[in-house]
Amino acid sequence: MLLQKGQKIDVTKNRNHKHVQVHIGWKTADTRIEADASAFLLSSSGICAQDEDFIFYGNPVSSDRSVSYTAGSNAQSGQFTMDWSRLSSSIHKIALTLTIHEGKKLNQYFNQVSNTYLEIIDPSGKETTITFEFGKDLTKETAIVVGEFYLHNGEWKFSAIGSGFFGGLDDLCKHYGLEVIDTQEDAGHDTVAAESAAAAAPPVETKINLNKIDLLKKKVEISLAKNKISNEKARVAVVFDDSGSMYYLYQTGTVQRAFEKVLAIASSMDDDGQLDVWFFADQSKRTGSVTAADYENYVERTHIMGSVGFGNNEPAVMRDIIKKYSKEEPNDRVPAYVVFFSDGGIYETEEIAEILIESSKLGIFWQFVGLGQSDYGVLEELDDLPGRFIDNADFFALDDIDTVSDSELYDRLFNEYPQWLVQARQKRILKS
Q1: For 120, how many CA atoms within 13 A lie in the half-sphere containing its CB?
Q2: Of 253, 161, 273, 198, nearest to 45 (Cα)?
Q3: Angle between helices 212-226 and 254-269 (to 10 degrees)
Q4: What's the pTM?
Q5: How far is the C-alpha of 70 from the C-alpha of 382, rounded, in Å?
Q6: What is the pLDDT along the chain (432 residues), one digit of tens a residue?
């Protein structure tokens, strides 16, 4: 069923399903344009009563778990799941929006975005998919209110809106009653023209910081507390496979997003708030350390495909990391926590094993992460690698890092690190 702009339709009336899935998609010829889908859970007065009612990349699940968000694998779509049975009785409307990240600052607008659509899908497959195509009439808008679910006589309906605005995500937050800490994009721009009761509503005493790293840090801190290592400091590093097979993951922004997730770890637990960064292929390359103040487009600014070759030479980068943390900057009190991303094709098995054995007496923990389904060689056998002084490495593989929630990702990244800290102090590798 195809909806027209302004049309309304019943969603729950005379239907037995308890939840629906909502897909929002778009296409951009310019891969530098980054769009984000968001949902605002609104009270009867048309405002968010708390920060947790704003669902987006930095807060993907509502506090009552009624609404959840998952970014699409191609970075040009997003999916919301609405569970009506869990939704708080205080929520009367859910507004769905699409915004261009830093659109005005970068001169990026929705007339550069095509094939924008929304689909409401019954997961059981028993109901016809509802489709709403929007945005063809937009010019230099940087935000869209795509549509709204709203409560009417005890049942949920959907209104196809498709209205564009010239403000960004922070303006939409202000429009829906959230006070924004201006850290980016549209600070100082005109706010969105109000089209609901929110315009006359008094401001809600709540603040939300839209800096991606600050938002990710909240998830890091929860995971650190869960693992009882909130007070631990470390020198945090990230390593990215730069071989030819990684080309697609660089082009689609997957590497940048992985970088941001690790930068949030450095911002939370690094001794100086800096993240050390390496790229490797046939050769190893150190880039400048980075803080949360300079995260945007970091990979694009520092990475040149092919500059270090196209093969896989893990030993070269591993030895440079050891050189930095054990010889150039030795510190027997603050360990090095290294997150190492690879898409596989590992064949230097014997030398990698040798390096892991040698470095097991050093204050370095290796957290390997596989991207995709490939041959990870010795990394898949770390738990059984003999000859090490202590177990100093962990490995897990992800088919797609964008389909794993930030909370789950951080829990997996800290799966074995706390135990390593205990053993490293017991064996006097680290001083207390």
Answers
A1: 27
A2: 198
A3: 60
A4: 0.57
A5: 31
A6: 899 988 999 988 877 667 889 999 999 888 788 888 999 999 988 899 888 899 988 788 888 889 999 887 677 889 999 999 899 999 999 999 999 988 888 889 999 999 999 999 987 766 778 999 998 888 888 999 999 999 999 899 999 999 887 777 888 888 888 866 544 433 333 333 333 333 334 443 444 545 678 778 878 988 999 899 999 999 999 999 999 889 989 988 889 999 999 999 999 998 788 999 999 999 999 998 999 888 888 999 998 888 888 888 999 999 999 999 999 999 999 999 999 998 877 778 889 999 999 999 999 999 999 887 677 777 877 778 899 999 999 999 887 787 788 888 999 999 999 999 999 999 999 998
Among 357, 299, 283, 220, which residue's Cα sits nearest to residue 32?
A: 299
Q: Strands 93-100 and 35-42: what pairing?
A: antiparallel
Interior angle at CA 246, CA 251 and CA 359, nearest 5 = 130
How many CB atoms within 10 Å of residue 420?
24
Give the whole-angstrom CA distance, residue 328 versus residue 306. 28
Structure tokens at 299: 């990979």
Which stretches within 62-203 are classed as H helix?
A: 103-106, 169-175
∠ CA(258), CA(260), CA(261), 5° rounding?
65
CA angle 14, 18, 22 (to 5 degrees): 100
Q: Is the dihedral of CA 103, 106, 107, 113 positive or negative?
A: negative
